[in-house]
Specification:
The protein is mainly alpha-helical. Among the domains are: 32 residues, no CATH class; 70 residues. Helix content is 45%, strand content 5%. The chain contains three helices and two strands, in the order ββααα. Strands 1-2 form a two-stranded antiparallel ribbon. A hairpin with a 3-residue loop joins strand 1 and strand 2. The termini are far apart.
Length: 171
C-alpha cells in the first residue's frame, strides 16, 4: 500500500492521514512509532567521550558596585526608610488625636447634659407666683402698667472729683 507519492488514506471521520515511504504513516490520527528526537538519537549513537583534563572555566564575574554607587544606594534606602517611618508615626499620631477628640466630645456632651438637667431642676424649683407674692407683700413693690416709665433722681451730683493732674499730651 505504500506508494512513492504521498496519497490520502481513508475518509472515515474526516481523518487526514498520509503515507510516506521514508517515515511511515503520519498525520493527525497516526503517530510515528518509536520516534526518537534528533538530539537524543545523536547522543545515543555518539561514543562516550573521555573527560578531558582541563581546568574548569570560572564564569565571568559580574562587575560589582563601586563605593560611590553603594553609598548612594544606602543613602537612598535610609531616606526611604526614614520617610516611611515618619509617615507611619504621623498616621499613628492622627489616629490618637482622633480618638482623643472623640473622647473629649463625649465628655463635653455628658457635661452639657448634666448642666441642662441642673438648669431644669433650678427652673423647676423657682416658683414665679411665690416671687411675685414676696415682692408685693414684703418689699411693697408695685407692678408697672404698660407704657409707664418711672424716673428717679440720682442723689449723686454731676460733679467729678479729681485726685491728680491730667497729663499733657505730647503733640
Amino acid at each position: 500500500m505504500a506508494d512513492e507519492s504521498k496519497r490520502r488514506v481513508g475518509d472515515r471521520y474526516r481523518q487526514t492521514t498520509y503515507v510516506d515511504n521514508v517515515n511511515g504513516i503520519y498525520g493527525n490520527t497516526a503517530r510515528q512509532l518509536n520516534a526518537i528526537p534528533e538530539r537524543e538519537r545523536r547522543e545515543r549513537d555518539a561514543p562516550e567521550r573521555e573527560h578531558e583534563k582541563r581546568p574548569n572555566r570560572q564564569p565571568a564575574s559580574m562587575p560589582g558596585l563601586d563605593g560611590a554607587s553603594f553609598a548612594f544606594m544606602a543613602l537612598a534606602l535610609c531616606i526611604i526608610m526614614f520617610t516611611a517611618f515618619s509617615y507611619i508615626h504621623t498616621q499613628n499620631n492622627v489616629r490618637t488625636m482622633k480618638k482623643q477628640i472623640i473622647t473629649l466630645q463625649t465628655e463635653v456632651e455628658k457635661q452639657q447634659e448634666k448642666n441642662d438637667i441642673e438648669y431644669n431642676k433650678i427652673l423647676a424649683s423657682v416658683d414665679l407666683a411665690d416671687i411675685y407674692k414676696y415682692a408685693t407683700e414684703k418689699l411693697h413693690m408695685v407692678m408697672a402698667n404698660s407704657n409707664k416709665v418711672y424716673t428717679y433722681k440720682s442723689k449723686k451730683g454731676d460733679m467729678v472729683k479729681q485726685h491728680s493732674d491730667i497729663p499733657q499730651s505730647g503733640d
